[in-house]
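Subject: design request, 556 residues
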């Protein structure tokens, strides 16, 4: 599946492509960061001109494009550093790549290593760049690829675009030095203590292993641009990973200030893993505003608007995905009901899931009733709420194990019962035996027998390092997140740009074979949740202990 429209494949073509390069041997003073250009950013990301009109792009072999489909980001990515699409290399177009002088020797190289970049052509000027964008003629006077659109772009808009391209060149990146990469993991105060301990044990063991690996490796390794026409070589420094644990305190209203203080005191390149309770939105907003990549936190309820963000990546939509699975199953059942009951605790993640599911049913004319249990009430309050129902209407339980176990002394309802697998404990879900015949469980991961081999990689790693398995999915997901980031950074060499890390992770995830709890992971533009589906399952009436599926893997 293609991850982005190939609107300008080979954009700026070989004429704009540049050579792979390392850092110059002689030290250079880092210039001040250029000021932002909101107009240039809107043009680059959304195809919107200074006037508010859409950017228009023309190609001889296709209909004109305008607005977002014509935006530079579609091919050159948000970082401006391009990408490899199948056999096509889309080159970097940040200002220092475009305007850098033709290289005459290794001592002149000062650009980060980008696969497929070239520097064996004349540097662009503002005039020749305008010609390239409007007429398709490169800096050497040669035609660009026919796949590169010709843009209807005025002088003022061109200047704003160039100003934005200059902001994409990062001389200083927080959390990155010549010898170290700094990461943070964030823990909210409402996170489960057992999961917190389990996650931190995996993270600390992984970082310790990284430290040992760097000590055991040669300090530098050699890599090459891969181009026979311009095969410059450069050194890659194997950097030490440093972990900072940021534990937030108090109400969510104060988290942003805490995060800003922690980032100022301990600048980091990325946030890796992490653990949250019912509200991660302040953390996600901080990562978007900073900006700093926030990579695969352990959450039962990620922000609902996660797909509209860029810097945060998640494995799953959690209970919001379960809400879609349950809502779809009830709405499509034979003899769809006129009413649905939902029970959840106030302040827990089930509250948001219940509201998301209710919105879907109400749009279909289904009446939804809620039993909201106060957060501090004993589990007997759930039993009381169940006794008040007393009909065959479907019941949806967004409850934790202690509340489910308390149903032991409650007679099951006459109708079907739907449950959150994530909240209930997945394979350890303690639903009383009398309730199991009519129970259907949302299961947003692969089945145990199908994921066993993939999860065994993590479990074997835990055994060798004597890490007790007390929260298997959290620990397996944390291990998977560390592995994905490590594999991605290994190929980034010295191009440590936050946006480029996120973009490179999309490629790593796409080709990942060992995916832990998930049958498949995919990411792309406007796709921040890597696993997009799940099952509805029920208990085996024969008592085998296995889950039986209500149907196939479903992507709502």
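Subject: RE: design request

Done. Sequence follows.
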């Amino acid at each position: 599946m293609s991850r982005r429209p190939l609107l300008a494949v080979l954009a700026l073509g070989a004429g704009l492509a540049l050579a792979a390069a390392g850092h110059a041997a002689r030290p250079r003073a880092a210039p001040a960061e250029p000021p932002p250009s909101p107009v240039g950013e809107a043009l680059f990301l959304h195809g919107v001109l200074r006037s508010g009109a859409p950017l228009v792009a023309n190609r001889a072999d296709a209909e004109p494009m305008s607005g977002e489909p014509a935006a530079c980001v579609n091919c050159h990515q948000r970082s401006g550093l391009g990408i490899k699409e199948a056999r096509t290399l889309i080159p970097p177009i940040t200002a220092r790549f475009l305007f850098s002088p033709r290289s005459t020797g290794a001592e002149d190289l000062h650009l980060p290593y980008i696969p497929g970049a070239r520097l064996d052509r004349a540097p662009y000027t503002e005039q020749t760049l305008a010609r390239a964008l409007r007429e398709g003629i490169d800096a050497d006077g040669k035609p660009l690829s026919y796949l590169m659109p010709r843009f209807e772009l005025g002088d003022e808009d061109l200047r704003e675009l160039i100003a934005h391209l200059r902001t994409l060149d990062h001389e200083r990146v927080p959390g990155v030095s010549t010898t170290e990469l700094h990461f943070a993991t964030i823990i909210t105060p409402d996170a489960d203590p057992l999961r917190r301990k389990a996650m931190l044990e995996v993270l600390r063991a992984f970082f310790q292993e990284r430290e040992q690996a760097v000590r055991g490796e040669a300090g530098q390794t050699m890599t090459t641009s891969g181009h026979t026409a311009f095969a410059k070589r450069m050194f890659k420094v194997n950097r030490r990973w440093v972990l900072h644990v940021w534990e937030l305190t108090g109400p969510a209203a104060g988290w942003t200030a805490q995060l800003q203080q922690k980032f100022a005191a301990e600048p980091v390149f990325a946030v890796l893993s992490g653990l949250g309770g019912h509200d991660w939105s302040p953390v996600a907003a901080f990562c978007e505003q900073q900006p700093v990549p926030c990579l695969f936190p352990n959450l039962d309820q990620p922000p609902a608007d996660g797909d509209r963000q860029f810097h945060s990546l998640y494995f799953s939509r959690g209970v919001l995905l379960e809400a879609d699975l349950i809502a779809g199953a009830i709405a499509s059942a034979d003899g769809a009901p006129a009413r649905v009951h939902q029970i959840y605790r106030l302040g827990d993640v089930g509250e948001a899931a219940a509201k998301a599911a209710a919105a879907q049913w109400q749009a279909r004319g289904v009446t939804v009733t809620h039993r909201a249990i106060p957060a501090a009430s004993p589990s007997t309050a759930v039993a009381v709420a169940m006794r008040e129902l007393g009909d065959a209407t479907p019941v949806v339980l967004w409850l934790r194990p202690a509340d489910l176990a308390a149903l032991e002394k409650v007679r099951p309802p006459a109708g079907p019962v739907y449950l959150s697998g994530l909240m209930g404990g997945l394979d350890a879900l303690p639903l009383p035996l009398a309730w199991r015949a009519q129970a259907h469980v949302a299961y947003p991961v692969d089945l145990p027998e199908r994921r066993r081999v993939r999860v065994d990689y993590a479990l074997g790693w835990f055994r060798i390092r004597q890490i007790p398995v007390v929260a298997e999915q959290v620990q397996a997901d944390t291990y998977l997140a560390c592995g994905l980031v490590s594999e991605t950074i290994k190929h980034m060499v010295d191009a440590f740009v936050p946006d480029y890390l996120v973009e490179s992770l999309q490629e790593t995830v796409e080709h990942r074979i060992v995916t832990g709890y998930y049958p498949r992971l995919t990411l792309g533009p406007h796709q921040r949740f890597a696993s997009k589906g799940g099952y509805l399952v029920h208990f085996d009436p024969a008592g085998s202990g296995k889950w039986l599926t209500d149907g196939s893997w479903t992507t709502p």
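Confidence is low (pLDDT under 50) at residues 1-30, 222-235.
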